[in-house]
Specification:
Blueprint: H1 2-16, E1 22-27, H2 29-37, H3 52-79, E2 82-88, E3 91-94, H4 100-123, H5 128-140, H6 153-159, E4 166-169, E5 173-178, H7 189-192, E6 195-198, H8 215-228, E7 234-238, H9 253-268, H10 274-305
Parallel strand pairs: 1-2, 2-4, 3-5, 4-7
Antiparallel strand pairs: 5-6
Length: 306
């Protein structure tokens, strides 16, 4: 499948690359892997619990890397475009910020979603938390090796650095606490994480049962990505909310408020680097002030001569 996907992508580069400059190889691969091969909610509807999602994700990462290299070698110099990936991730906040196990569980919550795909592309390997927990559960189940696939040294080098920009789809947040699932519960992506998800009853009521409006979680996720992966170029590829009310007229106040709150959280902490801020904000501002001061000085000088 890796080669088939690369052939398809190469054809797209050939036919559309003179116009398309931003390519996303996969959108929300978490859903493809987990809901397609773990829970069976989405196509192809397989329930290969504890194994299927990990194998599919492994191939998705390798397919993405191969496409990136194909573009880099054959098309980048001609077309001047970029190749990235779009990952979905909710933010995980510790239930008790003074409890180390809750802090680690919240981090694990994000690592088992965003980090699952982002870490190999930026560091060359899966998050350590995933390797530790899936490996531990596999050993407890009597398996000779982890259910989480491994990258060879050559593959680690091949997948590392294959992301020109990172797309992020974000909608909501969960409080997270440590919860130990016994190994006799069977293999499962969800029990591998050893955590429980909670919501705050004070969060605004959702239009969908899973989607709560928690704007501050968006900012924390963006800062997390910025610090963990070296301040990558980020595009917010998905964000929004379902409508709370059934109505025949326009009644989008809930959606408008959600988008306003999330955008404002993003604007509180610009994700540009310090040099970009100096170039784009400070320099023009200083120049404008200098021009105004010069104009005022010139006006007083001319008035004194009249």
């Amino acid at each position: 499948m890796v080669q088939f996907f690369n052939d398809y992508a190469n054809l797209c580069f050939e036919r559309f690359g003179n116009r398309v400059k931003h390519w996303i190889t996969f959108n929300n691969p978490w859903s493809v892997a987990v809901e397609g091969y773990e829970t069976g909610e989405h196509a192809p509807g397989l329930k290969l619990k504890g194994t299927g999602a990990y194998k599919v994700a492994h191939n998705i990462i390798k397919a993405h890397a191969k496409v990136w290299h194909t573009y880099d070698i054959q098309w980048r110099s001609k077309q001047k475009g970029m190749v990235g990936i779009s990952l979905s991730a909710d933010w995980g906040e510790p239930v008790d910020v003074s409890h180390q196990r809750d802090i680690e569980a919240a981090d694990r919550y994000v690592q088992f979603s965003l980090g699952w795909f982002a870490a190999p592309l930026y560091t060359g390997d899966y998050p350590q938390a995933m390797k530790d927990y899936v490996g531990k559960k596999s050993a407890q189940q009597g398996l000779s090796s982890s259910r989480l696939p491994t990258f060879s040294p050559q593959e680690k080098s091949y997948v590392r650095g294959t992301c020109d920009f990172l797309g992020i789809g974000h909608f909501t947040t969960r409080y997270v606490t440590q919860k130990n699932f016994p190994s006799n519960r069977g293999s499962s992506y969800f029990t591998d994480r050893d955590l429980a998800e909670l919501v705050d009853p004070l969060w605004p009521d959702p239009g969908s049962e899973w989607l709560y409006s928690v704007p501050w979680g968006f900012r924390r996720l963006l800062n997390y990505v910025k610090s963990l992966y070296g301040n990558p170029m980020i595009y917010v590829t998905e964000n929004g909310v379902s409508e709370k009310l059934m109505c025949t007229n326009l009644c989008d106040e809930w959606r408008m408020q959600y988008l306003k709150d999330y955008i404002n959280e993003m604007l509180k902490d610009p994700l540009t680097s310090h040099m970009e801020m100096v170039t784009e904000i400070v320099v023009p501002t200083v120049c404008t002030v200098c021009i105004l001061l010069s104009a005022v000085f010139l006006m007083f000088l001319l008035r004194g001569r009249l």
